[in-house]
Amino acid sequence: PDSLDDAAILAASACKQYASDAGAMSRCRVDFDTSIGDETYTTLKSSTEFMQKFVTAVCYEMIPGVKEIREKEIMALVSAKAELAQLGVSSDDDGDDDEEEEEDTA
Fold first, then answer.
1. Are 54 and 11 in contact (CB under 8 A)?
2. Among candidates 5, 55, 50, 3, which has minimal Cα distance to 31?
3. Can you tell me whether residue 78 is helix, strand or coil?
């Protein structure tokens, strides 16, 4: 695979294929090698990032409609940001300033 994203998608696709071939009570183990690349990048960091991407990809593969729902949510967010930009409101202002002010006064 060309990237961690590609590896997660390929692994998820293979798991789906295996589950459909082997049946509901089958087990699948996914191993991936983190020794290639930047040696200062720890195995735990690689594992965590891969698992986040893999779980997302497995959900998209195994649960009907999840990917489409997520795509609609992303499109709604992009649309809302575009509307805010047209109104001249910064999309970076997500309301966190109020929480920071409360922490500063405490």
1. yes
2. 50
3. helix
Q: Cβ distance 27 to 73 under 8 Å?
A: no
Q: Rounded to whole angstroms, how far apart are CA atoms 78 and 80?
A: 5
For 4-37, how does the pLDDT look when each residue is reduced to its tens digit (9 = 90+)?
Answer: 888 889 999 999 899 888 877 888 888 777 666 6
Could you tell me if 12 and 54 are in contact, meaning their C-beta atoms sit under 8 angstroms apart?
Answer: yes
Tokens of 6: 């590609």
Rounded-to-integer distance, Cα 38 and Cα 47, Å: 14
CB 38 within 8 A of CB 86: no
Place of tokens 């779980």: 55
Nearest in space to 56 (alpha carbons), one of 98, 12, 7: 12
Q: What is the pTM of this model?
A: 0.58
Residue 89 and residue 81: Cα distance in Å, rounded?
Answer: 9
